[in-house]
Structures are given as C-alpha cells and as structure tokens.
Amino acid sequence: MPAYAFFQKKFVTMPEAKVGVMTHALHYGTALFEGIRGNWNADKGEMYLFRLKEHYQRLHNGAKLLKISLDYSVDEMINLTVELVRKNGLKEDTYVRPLAYKSTEQMGVRLHNLDDDFLMFAIPWGRYLDTDSCKCGVSSWRRPADNSIPPQVKATGIYINNALAKTEAIENGYDEAIMLAPDGHVSEGSGENIFLVIDGKLHTPATYNNILVGITRDTVIQLAKNELGIETVERSIDRVELYMAQECFLTGTAAHLTAVGEVDRRKVGNGGIGPITKKLQALYTDIIKGKNPKYLGYCTPVYSA
Ligand SMILES: Cc1ncc(COP(=O)(O)O)c(C=O)c1O
User: Fold this and answer.
1) N or C: which end of the chain has fewer CB within 10 A?
2) b/e per residue 263-286 (b: at least 16 CB within 10 A)
3) What are the distances in angstroms from CA 199 to CA 233, 271, 274?
4) Ligand 1 center–CA 211 separation, angstroms
C-alpha cells in the first residue's frame, strides 16, 4: 500500500484519504478518471511517467462535459503527479489514478450546483492482461452511443458498460471482451483500443465507432508510421474482419500492447504474436521506459526532475 495520496488539495496519508457515504460521485458515477503509467527503468534507476500532458488534457476536456471545475492546470497536475510518485518512493512499474469527482455529500441526480474535488493515488502495478497472446470474445454488450454517454470521455459511470463486458468475457473463458458499437461495427476492448493487421497495414476503429480515443493508440499509430513506415487506416471495421485479419492486438495504458491470439475461439493468424505486433511491442516497451532518445519528450522523469 503506498503511503500518500493527493486529496482535498493536499498530500495526506492513505488512511486519511476517505470520502463520505453521501458523496455524489459514489452514487451517480459523476467522476472522471485517468490511468497513467510510471515505467521503471532499472538501468537508469529512474521512473518515467508516460505522456502526462495528453492524459491531463483529456481530463480537462472531459471536465467540460461533466461540468467539473478543475482547480489545477495541466502543468500543475503534471507537477503534482511527479511529486506524488516521488513522495511514495515507488521504484517498480506503477499506475497513477487521478480522479476528478463531484464531491458534495448530497442526493439528487444532476451535474450543476455541486462541488468538485481532484484526487490522485499511485500503486505498484505490473501486467494488466496477464498473457502474451490473449483470447477475446465478442461481447453481447455494446458500447454506448455518443448521445447516450459519450465514450470519448473517461467518466466513471460509463464503466458499468465495460465491467459488464469484461465479466461476461471472463465467465465465458476469455481474457478480454471485444465490444461492438451500437451499429454492430467493432469498437474496442473493455479497457483497450483494438488494431488489426491486414495486408501490411494497420486498421483500427475510428473516433465515430464509439471508442475512447486512446493515448496508447495514438503512440502506436505514430510508431508504425515513423519507425516502420506502416500506415494506419481509421475506419469502421466489420466483426468478420476480426477472424480474417493476419494479426490483431490491443493497446491501452494498463495493457500496453498485447497480442490477440484468438477471437471467438477462432485463431487470429497462427494464434501467437504476429511479426508486426512484435516489432511495435518492442518499440513501445523501449519508449515508455525512456530508452529511445527520440521519444524522451513523452517521458517525465520522477527522481531526476
Ligand atoms: C474503454 C477504453 N478504451 C481504450 C483505452 C485505452 O486508452 P489509453 O491508451 O489512453 O489508456 C482505455 C484505457 O484507458 C479504456 O478504458
């Protein structure tokens, strides 16, 4: 258990960081979160926080939808995150969870006339999908439409949808769910974006396919283009293409870049990790640990900052 959290505008010990039973966000899902990785580089004795700016820009964008007023700018949140990890002395792969939430202890479904708070804690966290090649099942649960609960925003309430899909997948013997959009096109995993490799190009669902526009997704698109000369096509993908692609992989802050070996009990490629997935995974693993000088701008060092 880490020692410190940031809560109600200051660093406190973890046991002090507690919300009341009437807290609005607890009842109505009126909160926004981010997931941020700290990647430990043992050779350099340094922790690198990955793409902090983009995570906090996404949080600020979501705050507009939920009418959450944030007391900290993107840069201030970045500094607080570095301080949090440093204070906790974490020296292994870490996950930082910032949460902006409706903190008023009052009942009544709404977004207006409520106070907001911003909290953060950091925990050691290794692999999320504990497999080299994951078995996925297409979920019976669909992603919500933009005008139901916008999936582009990481609002806590929407994650009931993801939890339904994840538990269904696990109970059916899979590692992860692949969710479809309301119109039946492929959308994303329960906590990851999805890519297919078809005839040497990457294909991934577009923003209009009800996805959370992932920061890992963006990183992988850039790496494919700049390092491997591989183009990514963002488009609507049919379910059947999942079974016919040469390779498939998932991307996310928690899951990093994980190969999909099977969808609905049908092998993708040879069922293992494909050559393009392998190359992208190696590139990604290096840049998040601050090992590739070209991408050091994405990495915020904690201990030498
Ligand atoms: C539903 C969903 N899709 C995609 C992602 C991947 O986004 P990112 O790469 O920004 O972590 C996540 C994780 O944050 C997620 O929860």
Assistant:
1) N
2) beeeebbeeebbebbeebbebbee
3) 12, 17, 13
4) 9
Mutational pocket test of ligand 1: of 95, 129, 166, 193, the residue with most ligand atoms within 8 Å of the beta carbon: 193
Tens of pLDDT, residues 195-221? 999 999 999 999 999 999 999 999 999
Protein residue with least CA distance to atom 16, ligand 1: 191
Mapped onto helix, strand or coil, the DSSP state of residue 79 is: helix
The string of pLDDT tens digits covering residues 146-198 is 999 999 999 999 999 999 999 999 999 999 999 999 999 999 999 999 999 99
Q: What angle do CA 190, 193, 199 make, to 5 degrees?
A: 135
CB of residue 37 inside a 6 A radius of ligand 1: no
Distance between Cα 58 and ligand 1 center (Å)? 11
Mark whether 154 is an active-site residue. Answer: yes
- What is the per-residue pLDDT across 218-235, written as a single tens digit (0 to 9) for each? 999 999 999 999 999 999
176 in contact with ligand 1, CB cutoff 6 A:
no
For ligand 1, say whether the CB of 212 is within 6 Å of any of its atoms.
Answer: yes
Please give the distance, rounded to the nearest whole angstrom, from the Cα atom of residue 76 to the centre of ligand 1: 23
182 lines ligand 1 (CB under 6 A): no
pTM: 0.97
Q: Tell me the C-alpha distance between 295 and 284, whole Å.
A: 10
Neighbours of 224 (CB within 10 A): 21
Give the length of the chain: 305
Q: Is residue 21 within 8 Å of 87, Cβ to Cβ?
A: no
C-alpha count within 13 angstroms, C-beta hemisphere, residue 246:
12
- Whether 33 and 253 have beta carbons less than 8 Å apart is answered as no
- The pLDDT score that the predictor gives to residue 53 is 98
